Amino acid sequence: MTALPSSSAHHPFPETASAINPSQDPSATIQPIANALHNPSQSTSSNSSHHHRPTSPIDDPLARDFPHIGKMCKEDLRDLLNDPDYFNAIFIRQPIVKDMLEKHESLISTNHALVERNLSLRPKLENLRDRVASSFNQTQQFISEFEILSKQQADLYQAFGESASRSRLLTALHESDKLAESLANQFAIEGLLEEEQFVKEFREERRKYHKRAWMANRWSEGAIRWD
């Protein structure tokens, strides 16, 4: 192989000479390549001649993994190490590096597509968020109204509850007894009522009294359930 001059103006790959810097590798997977390129003594035999001449292929891991680099002579390897642009041009043409760069670009394109899709969904998401917020506020309003109505219902129901109903029954029972006694006094002692009127009113009041007394007794015995 003919040795290449050390000047970067005569690189065999001028179009890619400054395309990538090794420190900007897309993946740590390509680091062994750079290490191998910087240690040619492990894959090349010593050559004491200062003239460029072809060298026989070297059978070692570097030569097997990177045949193009393994076939380089000592002078080419020295140029490869001393000239960053030449190194970059050779480096990015290695299949594993090209594969990693392609995967890197593919991932970037995929990420860009996801970003665009997410941005396209933003108006719908914002609209949905506003609708959820409106529904939440409306629900809170309904809850407040329900609590007010529940309190009003409880206040109204309290007057018809078991305790209040039994209290009214006992009060009416006591009033019926007092009224019947008052009618008897008006007829027998004061003479304010005719016999026919007294019998009619007294009988009616005692009928109410006995009905209420029967109900109160049944309630006290637990025969009446208030569900």
How does this model look, in words?
This protein is mainly α and 227 residues long. Mean pLDDT is 76; it is low at 1-30 and 40-53. α4 (74-82) crosses α5 and α7 (162-188) runs antiparallel to α8 (195-220). The longest helix is centred in the middle third of the chain and has 64 residues, at 95-158. It is 66% helix and 0% strand. Among the domains are: 8-93, no CATH class; 160-220. 12% of the residues are buried.
What tags apply to this protein structure?
single chain; 227 residues; mainly alpha; 8 helices; 0% strand; disordered N terminus; Mod_r; VPS37 C-terminal domain-containing protein
Question: Which bin fits the share of residues in helices?
Answer: 55-70%
Strand content: under 5%
* Sheet with most strands: none
Number of strands: 0
